[in-house]
Design brief:
Helix content is about 5%, strand content about 50%. It is globular, with a radius of gyration of 15 Å. It is built from one helix and ten strands. Strands 2, 3, 5, 6, 7 and 9 form a six-stranded antiparallel sheet that branches. It has a four-stranded antiparallel sheet with strand order 1-10-4-8. The chain is mainly beta. The protein has one domain (about 10-125): Sandwich (Jelly Rolls), CATH 2.60.120.
Length: about 140
Amino acid sequence: MRTARFSEQAAYLGGINPASHSTEQNTGYLSLANYHRAVVIIHCGVIGGNLDVDFEEATDTSASGAQSFNSAGKDIAKTATTDNNTISIIEIDCDELDIADGYDCLNVEVTPASAGIFGVQVWGLEPRYAPVATSNVDSITD
């Protein structure tokens, strides 16, 4: 028996809306300060060219001190036609961030070689203070 709803333990933090994109897209720097883990979901539709997915970290949501985040090889590439209609899930333990220097914000940057349909979602998991905020979702149905 479960005692907590998904919406009480996972918070949608932001992302890139699914659409046909032909230029670099960014989630913007999203704060992971209130979570122990995060998950990034990349959903590819039909991509006409390769996608380069890079992770960056900063000390705040304004991108202060922005630097590359590539703990354990989180950056990935999606291949045109081979990765059409696929989903990639990248899990991040927030301890992988440069927390000693105050880094707790994450940006996902996706650069397409040519127009392609894709979207990105970033979820905060294992909240430090439950329940999580639900202000980023339109509705929750039991």
